[in-house]
Amino acid sequence: MKKRILIVDDSKTLRDQLEEILIQLGYDIAGHADNGAAAIRLVKELKPDIVTLDRIMPKMDGIETLRMIKKLDPTVTVIMVTARSDKASVLECAKAGAAHYILKPFEHDRVASVMEKLSSVPGSA
After folding, report:
1. What strands, in cross-sheet order, belong to the sheet with 4-8?
2. CA 103 to chain centre
3. What is the pLDDT of residues 72-119, one digit of tens each?
4. Which 8-state DSSP code applies to residue 25?
5. Which pLDDT score is estimated for 109?
């Protein structure tokens, strides 16, 4: 059974780019959200296996959204999407419950590598 993914990013262009890559990799797209509040609502409604979550969004940032998603469903795999790869940012995401991160701009091979790593971890993607 294909894993279902909720894509969360305030940029429609980036949501579309990531969706195209994930579909090519064999994933189903459960839905899209452009902010944290919508993401939380859709996690409740759609029960995705994986959430890709933008780190910086208006209204509610990715870290706050991540914490709320993990409280709601501790089993969902959350992958942070960010342009920042500094150690402090990556550590903050991991402490909040992120399983991994994908760097912007998206590259097919990078996304595939992250998804492959997660699929080899029991209970993850």
Report:
1. 28-33, 4-8, 50-54, 77-82, 100-103
2. 11
3. 999 999 999 988 778 888 889 999 999 999 989 989 999 999 999 988
4. T
5. 95
CA–CA gap between residue 44 and residue 102 (Å, rounded): 23
Q: Is 123 exposed, middle or buried (0-12, 13-18, 19+ CB in 10 A)?
A: exposed
The rounded distance, in Å, linking the Cα atoms of 62 and 108 is 22
> Which residues are CB-neighbours of 25 under 8 A, at least 6 positions away?
111, 112, 115
Average of per-residue pLDDT across 54-78: 94
Q: How far lies 9's CA from each of 14, 37, 123, in Å?
A: 7, 12, 24
The pair phi, psi for residue 100, each rounded to 5°, is -170, -175
Backbone dihedral angles phi then psi of residue 84, each to the nearest 5 degrees = -100, 125
Backbone angles phi, psi at 27, to 5 degrees: -95, 155
